[in-house]
Amino acid sequence: MEIIILKNAESVAAMGGELLGELLRVRPAAVLGLATGSTQLALYRQLVEKHLAGDISFKHATSFNLDEYLGVAADNPQSYRVYMDREFFDRVDIDKQNTFLPYCEEGQNPRLVGPRYEEKIRQAGGIDLQLVGIGCNGHIGFNEPSSSLRSRTRVKTLTRQTFKDNSRLFSKEEFQPKLAITMGIATIMDARRILLLATGESKAEAVSKMMEGPVSAMCPASILQMHERVTVLLDEAAAAGLRNRDYYDWTYRQNESLKDRFGIDHD
Ligand code: F6R
Fold first, then answer.
1. Is 181 in the pocket of ligand 1 (CB under 6 A)?
2. pLDDT (tens digit per residue) in 94-119
3. Quick check: 266 pLDDT over 90?
4. Which of 47, 55, 135, 196 has the fewest CB atoms below 10 angstroms from its CB?
5. Is the separation of the CB atoms in 143 and 182 below 8 Å?
6. Predicted pLDDT at 255
7. For residue 133, which atom of ligand 1 is closest to its CA?
8. Among 139, 165, 190, 235, the one annotated catalytic
9. What is the DSSP string of 127-189?
10. pTM strictly above 0.85
11. Burial level of 108, CB count in 10 A (0-12/13-18/19+)?
């Protein structure tokens, strides 16, 4: 794992924007795995700014989101489709026909959505870079603790904690889903690169378990220890629980060139 600890959430988003921008410049038709959640908002703002400044284009890119709520219509303001359109897709030049979420149409069997989504990812040539956040309980996507480390895209039930964590985003009158369709852990692990962003003290414990704890289904993000190319961008607060901190900083200082660090060389 490549671990980069930065001053604050803004620097994390800025570095994330640099890394994604670099990938798109080298590989304009990149297949991006995208995530939602509060952490990613600043990153999308960065990407939009870069696009408006003429630095990057998403015209030839394709995207697959990690997850989508089940039982929430695509045009519901709480859907991840609306989040993605509002925060990102509608503000850049990506062709929306090439943006996918694991959405279950009304009347469709939700169990069929996962295998079809996986097939679509395969047809696109696989994911070049998967963006992920981390839940306070160590989830990635909606792969909650105890998820199979070999799982593929499927229906998952959110834990009570995730349900509670996300309740801040729903008003009292709104339906808050307990089910979602999420890429599986094996699906995420298939990505050629993974970029994980975590900010804020509420993530400190999950981050230390992910990086310095045992690989365990009880901390799904810990499987990333087994991936060859993971970059973890943390702010000081999210890094607060790391025991090996000194080594991460020391290593980072040795790697001066962004290109060397991210090495866009797999074409
Ligand atoms: C979102 C997702 C989740 C979030 C995680 C962190 O698509 O899959 O795993 O990345 O719950 O969410 P925030 O950033 O809101 O703390």
1. no
2. 999 999 999 999 999 999 999 999 99
3. no
4. 55
5. yes
6. 72
7. 10
8. 139
9. -SEEEE---TTS-BTTB-TT--TT--SEEEEPPHHHHHHHHTTS-TTS---SEEEE--HHHHH
10. yes
11. exposed
